[in-house]
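Chapter summary example.
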Amino acid sequence: MNKLSEKFVVGGFSLALLLMSGVATASYLSIQRLTAERRWVVDIQQVLESIDHVRIGLGNAESARSSYIFTEDTVYRETYKKQKQEVYQMLKAMRRLSSDNSNQQRRLDTLEPLIAQKFSLLEQSINLFEQKSLDKPTQIAIVIRCIEIDKQIKAISQAMENEEKNILQERTAVTKDLFQEIVIVLSLGYVLSVVLLIVVYSLLQKQIQMNKALSQEAIRLEQQAAKAKLADILETITDAFVALDRDSCYTYINHKAEQIFNRRSTDLIGKNVWEVFPETVEYKFYQIYHQAAAEQRVIHMEEYYAPFGRWIEYYMYPSAEGISILFQDVTRRKLAEIALEESERRYRSLVIATSQAVWTSDSNGMPKEFSSWIALTGQTDAQVKGWGWLNAIHPEDRELTQLLWTEAIKTKNLYFSEYRVQVADGSYRFFAARAVPVLDANNEIQEWIGTYTDITERKLAQQALQGVNEELEIKVRERTAELQKLNQDLQRSNQELEQFAYVASHDLQEPLRAVAGYTQLLEKEYQHCLDDSAKEYLAYIVDGAKRMQHLIQDLLAYSRVGTRGQEFVLVDCNTALSLALSNLYVAIAESEAIITHDPLPKLLADKTQMVQLFQNLVGNAIKFRRQKPPQIHIGVLTTEREAEGELSTPRSQWLISVRDNGIGIKSQYLERIFEVFRRLHTRREFPGTGIGLAICKKIVERHGGRIWAESEPGVGTVFYFTLNTK
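The structure predicted for these 726 residues follows.
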């Protein structure tokens, strides 16, 4: 028995070993076959995925081409090239994965040229756009050809997909059969050896895990395909869309949302919305967002978002993964609503503010709402209807009122009229009536809205003012007549005075010339009979006569400054100064005076008087000099801030100065020097009549300016005068 048992045990052990070896061999072979089948399934799934990628890539490339044509954004041109490259990579992968399938290889041989034609047509359309070509027949032919190629591509890709799915089903069936064989073998081996079952169980567990991995991979691929299709849909809608996870981080942003955010989706994906837009926490959106997440219900809201300067309408769709938000720019609609509300509010305020007489009428101008008119005039409803309301208007104003109202209805323009209305107490009061037409979309009148304003007090005040104005006009006319008469008398007096001055100067100078002439003849003829005292007396007579002549001439010049002045013309002060210096040539040469000046302006003035003004001021500077040669400078400034540019540029006033290094003037005499006959020195010290500066003052005042002096004795004097630019 022992031997038998031993043989049995050995035989059984051997048989178990053989069975284990057979099970192991069968399991190993089955595993190899399952591994091969897994590779087949994976390859098929990759082929199916590549087909989907080719479809998506073609669609994205065509979309990028369209976006580039519509927006001219080179980003879409780069997207098109990238999608094209990915399509060709997918084609290479498909050819490699289906290298053992002749049918699929033949289909690829047909598909690849079609795709190449498709991209060639897309490239052609892009080139036409870049060349700004408007060849519509060519564009239409491209579109038609693209549609035909799309149909062929779709048919071939669908055939390839169907064949791959059929192969997948066959491989799945083979896998199932193989799995059954393994179960049978393992079941028989389990009776003989636990170890064999454990091995078989281990192998089975591995196979199950492999099948689960394949299933999960298939599910993942299907989810990716679904997400790709969903993304295509979201990119085509006109509303903006974003998706956020539970941490409020962006997971998806469509193109419309990019436009509203003015940012690229690649810059926002994965970032927290509250970090990207921190100011949002201050808006109602922040509260509604968390409310939707907490209550897990759809919430709709509208809010003005200041950073974008837009009104945004939101639809929030919470889910277990986060929140999806669909939103759009509704600024135009909201502004229209706000404007409508503002208009209605103003209308209500107008009605309240003018409640004493507000009325409405229909499109034909007949009264609709006239309760205020009844309260104002005391008419009844029956009396107001139709044109009956005109009976409350003063008879003298009715015809014009009816004419203006009819014309406003005809032209659809604003209505305005003023007339007298008989109010409830029987008296007449002045009213101003205004009305505006309410038009529909077809520019047709729907109704009229108007008001009446009591302007009686204003009218009475206007009448009183008109009476005062008439009385004032009478007084003004009387006063004007008196002034005209006085002006005529003054002109006649000035003419007589001017004639008298001329005659007097002529008659006075003639005896003086005779006195001087005969005195000089007497001195010449009887020189040998005269002693020194007589000669001195004769010299006094001649000198007095000459001084009297100069005095008369200066007085005549002083009187003629305002009476015989020339008409103002554009005068170059540089030219006027040159003429004055020419007249003073002898005095300048004798005194060895050094005279400089700034570039002087051009202005409207009396040229002769400007020459006289410069001549008197420069002559004074030469006359009242010290022992050393005089140095005289004529400068120019403006009374406003000095501006760059030519000195002929218009200014409000010019400030001109004449500076010397003469004997100077004491401060207490600076005002008196401009008076007639005012002298500060004796005739022996400095000759002259004392009228020169008075003439200068009168010339400057005639030109609308003023003159003054600043001086320091022993240092020099500066004469300033202003002249208008116009």
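To summarize the output: Residues 2-71 form the longest helix (70 residues).
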